[in-house]
Design brief:
Helices cover about 35% and strands about 20% of the residues. With about 270 residues, the chain is an alpha/beta fold. The model has no long low-confidence stretch (mean pLDDT about 95).
């Protein structure tokens, strides 16, 4: 894996990771809230026969650390655009999950020249039109600490049939983050609202969601599908918030097929 750092528009250091065939089309992978690029560690290899995968650590995670200013899904989308520019990538397929899906929406809206096609996984339009998680879920996430919080979060991601223990999951948060960094990410995700602008998205769009997701209810997938012109929708039965990892043998080929077909028709 090639790892490099560069200064964003305001000088903030961003760490970028690139892997896969140099002559393959680029695929930008955008992870969830309070997570570094490691979110994709167990999945990105399945994309690399077809794509050159690109990830970067959001501000406040992994190797992208510094003084955090005003952050939003739009500012993270600006960072994503700068990453692609830094790599000399004009057009890229984009796959964003959870908060990464919110950032993908803003990338498609504010930098439409970059995404050739997008996949939105377990994400939301945000704002007053989004369907919020059940109140008891939010209360438990705020109340629980330590091992209890980790296990509760793990159960929101995976069904009881998932055999990998919580301690090995790459999706439960970057453990190196400070409290202020985690709080900043929480605000970024909570303040997202793209509902009004979603009809402006022109990139071919696939929306995927698990129908048992309590972290981000599946109703949000239907809202996105209704708002984004000509979008495709796929719902995974029994899938929770980590459906794209637990059911990767179904989800990943569907994403690859959609993205490659979109590239071929571009």
């Amino acid at each position: 894996m090639q790892v490099n750092r560069f200064g964003a528009r305001d000088g903030f250091p961003l760490e970028v990771q690139v892997r896969g065939p140099e002559d393959a089309p680029a695929l930008l992978l955008l992870q969830g809230q309070s997570n570094s690029h490691e979110w994709w560690d167990d999945l990105r290899g399945d994309f690399e026969p077809d794509f050159r995968t690109v990830t970067f650590d959001y501000r406040g995670t992994g190797g992208s650390r510094g003084e955090l200013d005003r952050l939003s899904t739009a500012s993270f989308a600006d960072d994503a655009a700068e990453v692609l520019d830094h790599l000399g990538v004009d057009r890229a397929a984009v796959y964003g999950t959870s908060m990464g899906g919110r950032i993908t929406q803003m990338l498609a809206l504010n930098h439409p020249e970059h995404p050739s096609a997008i996949v939105l996984g377990c994400t939301s339009p945000g704002g007053n039109h989004a369907v919020k998680r059940p109140r008891e879920v939010g209360q438990a996430l705020a109340r629980l600490r330590g091992a209890e919080h980790t296990q509760y979060l793990f159960d929101l991601f995976y069904t009881p049939e998932w055999t990998v223990a919580a301690e090995y999951s790459k999706m439960l948060g970057d453990p190196t983050m400070k409290a202020a960094e985690s709080s900043a990410h929480l605000r970024v995700s909570a303040n997202h609202d793209a509902w009004e602008r979603l009809p402006e998205i022109t990139a071919p769009t696939l929306i995927m969601h698990g129908d048992a997701d309590q972290m981000n209810p599946v109703e949000n997938a239907y809202i996105l599908h209704e708002r984004i012109p000509d979008s495709q929708l796929r719902i995974l039965p029994e899938g929770r918030h980590g459906f794209f990892e637990e059911f990767a043998e179904v989800v990943t080929p569907a994403a690859i097929r959609f993205l490659t077909e979109s590239l071929q028709s571009y």
